[in-house]
Amino acid sequence: METIYKVEELKKLFPVKRRGIFERTRRYIHAVDEVSFNINKGETFGIVGESGCGKTTLARMLLRLEEPTSGKIFFKGQDITSVDRQELKNLRKKMQMIFQDPYSSLDPRKTIYNLVAEPLKVHKVVQDGTREEKVKETLALVDLPTTEEFLGKVPDELSGGQRQRIGIARALILGAEFIVADEPVSMLDASVKAGITSLMIDLKQRIGLTYVFITHEIGLAYYTCDRIAVMYLGKIVELGNAEEVIRKPLHPYTQLLMEAIPPLQPDEQWGKTITERGELPLFDEPPKGCRFHPRCPAAKDPCSMDEPELKEITQGHHVACLESW
Ligand SMILES: Nc1ncnc2c1ncn2[C@@H]1O[C@H](COP(=O)(O)OP(=O)(O)OP(=O)(O)O)[C@@H](O)[C@H]1O
Ligand SMILES: [Mg+2]
What we know:
This protein is of the alpha/beta class. The chain has helices at 55-62, 85-92, 112-123, 128-141, 148-151, 160-172, 190-207, 218-224, 242-247, 252-259; strands at residues 3-15, 28-40, 44-48, 70-75, 78-79, 95-98, 178-182, 210-215, 227-232, 235-241, 311-314, 317-319. The protein has a domain at 42-59 and 84-94 and 174-319: 3-Layer(aba) Sandwich (Rossmann fold).
């Protein structure tokens, strides 16, 4: 399998506002804390975890929309951690983001034509005369109308699902191969969700895309992802084949997440929700040892002292838990 993307010990710290003028030491939120993984060409790599665990920060760093504090990012073998702006602009043709909110991510004053043509203008890749053709071709790819009437509309005249299709068209029009989708369907109605999800799966096969698919819904990850990484407070706690991780989770945190979702089979039981074990704590300095230990039902004494590394337990299935090894 060909590795298209690789990150090594990627880290992002956000400084916390000082509580007062007498506070000497600078404190940081460890939004993403030394995360490493490979993404294979053609796969859908899921990132799951609760709100605030660092999914968006990680996603933005993958595309260099957010500068990492430390660590390295490789795209097709090239170290892109510190490439200059011009090189980054070139790379952006190949790697794009689909945003969570189809309402705020589109400029409400622009027409559909201008929104979809915008990347072509910015990157000056298509001659003026053939721009319209390219826009229509891309709209057809995402199953949207290509009529003059539709091209002249503004985002307010579109449904949420149509707007998200515009977001996808904008991501694809330059010929991207690597797409980071940050909760692409979480703000859509259930019926529309399925349509957008299947469009994304279909596009992946038709044009050979590689996805990073971020979701807080582990059930959605089951249907869309080949492999998943489960994040907790900035760290990956479990990584492996999506079906295996979801059906046989090894990390107590993944197990709790699993209990919180609707049954995958009609005969499986609804469980307790993860929030019954408390909300995701807001630590600027994460807890010592395993950062999940204060909420972990299986925690033992060593868990509060030693930080577990992500270890391969069975082929391709990694877990960071002293208890599971
Ligand atoms: N620009 C920023 N400045 C300071 N702190 C930030 C910034 N962006 C994110 N954070 C903090 O970093 C942590 C991770 O945030 P992030 O948005 O990456 O989480 P998330 O997993 O995407 O959450 P959600 O599911 O709610 O989208 C949070 O504690 C958040 O408050
Ligand atoms: Mg987010």
